[in-house]
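ok so I'm stuck.
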Amino acid sequence: MTASTPPDVTGSSPALQTEDPQAGRVPIRRVFVSVFDKSGLEELAAAFKASGVAVASTGGTRTALQSFGLEVEDVSEITGFPEVLGGRVKTLHPKIFAGLLARRDRRDDAEVLAEHGIELFDAVIVSLYPFERAAADPAMPDAEAIELIDIGGPSLLRAAAKNHAFTAVISSDQQYAALVNAVAAGGFTFAQRRQLAADAIAHTAAYDTMIASWMAKQIAGEAEASPLPARLSFDLEQRMSLRYGENPHQAAAFYAPAGTSGGIAGLRQLSGKELSYNNLADLDAAVRLAGLVGDPTAIVVKHMNPCGAAAAESVAAALDAAMKADPTSAFGSIVAVNHHFDEAAAELLLTPGLFVEVIAAPSFDPKAVELLTTKPTWRANVRLVEIPAGDAWAATAGLELRSVAGGLLAQRPDCEPDDPASWKLATSVPVPPDQAAAVEFAFTMVRRLSSNAIAVCNGTSLVGAGIGQTSRVDAVRHALEKAGDRADGGVLASDAFFPFPDSIALAKAAGIAAIVQPGGSKRDPEVIAAAEEAGIPMVMTGRRHFRH
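replied:
not stuck anymore, here's the structure
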């Protein structure tokens, strides 16, 4: 008797498996196939035909398999019920699922199969509807996206995975070669079936997570206040194995939600050795800041804070100014630009004494790549990385996440440009017209510094930064010290309000020509009065950019 024959339970039924299911292989004699992606079916059809494997399938898959000369039983012939609702219901039937879920070492299961004329399936092969199309296309109509939610496919995969003691489950065309080998070898081993089951469950979990994230995004988009979701589900896959974390004794890897192609998750490395944990953290800081400026801009980052930044008429000019802001800190730094990285920019980095670890850009000129990977003494070490445009937050439901012990903090990312038209002049002393661009640039730079943060800019170049200080006046001192003589005639920006007027006295002594800050302190009148007395125009933006 073959596995495709209803078991005879009146005597010693061949369908009853009395031995330990973990002990050996389960021959593959009958399979159920239902795949959206028809890739690889020709090879499967040839293997099934050569080995005499009985095949049952659904409409489109059945037609494809028959085109390769394989005899295929239609699902409707098995269930005695036609596909209905435009194909929405076709496999959800006891004669399909009992054939997948029956325990072959249970006499009561065998009796049920015999009573209802249900035949066993030894394997199921499924590829799901491509819901990732909906997840990747915000313009797709809801009705079209919903039709890409697979119902029968995940159910088939879960049923076979649950019964992996007896049933093999194939959830990817990458497993077809193993299936062909198993057919010839007399079936999969228990260990192989268990691994296939684990893969299938992970696959359906990822699929459900993708749908849940899409649903959450639709709901958030319709809500007036765009509340954060009550539950977050992400399918994180390892994108990069890292040698270690922040320190050599810490194991580390880079993970991203499945299907993510924006931001750091979508980077394409053109050259150089592997990226490190700290490289990726610095890259994120540099790229996010560069993206806030429209003009050609270069950002030089060390330990997640910009130590140099500039906007200019070209990437090369911006890079030159940014590297000169703090040459000592710029050595071994991460550089990001927001425009095409051309040959002129590469030539600038060939200056003797310069060394950068990573250069990131939306795109690189081939000549620039050739120069940077062949000319400088550090050519073997530099990593050139292309960062694609697009919404980097789409895959995380529009949220910025940070891990804490035992959980995650989530917030909407602070990535929208400020609107200078909404800013208010707090002093009677106006900002000189030639300082307007510097004021805007300085406030853009300070928003990506670690708080308490102060940025000192001379024109559209960052020349001094006070970062991570426990008092704002200390941050002012540090930024002015780094800027030195370049603070004279420059602009000082603060990421949050000044709690006391003492910082204004320091700014005056350094020759600061304008101050920009959010305001919002109960001592704002005292701070404004100090600026008035010092003759320094002060702009209040009304928007804080505090960043721990």
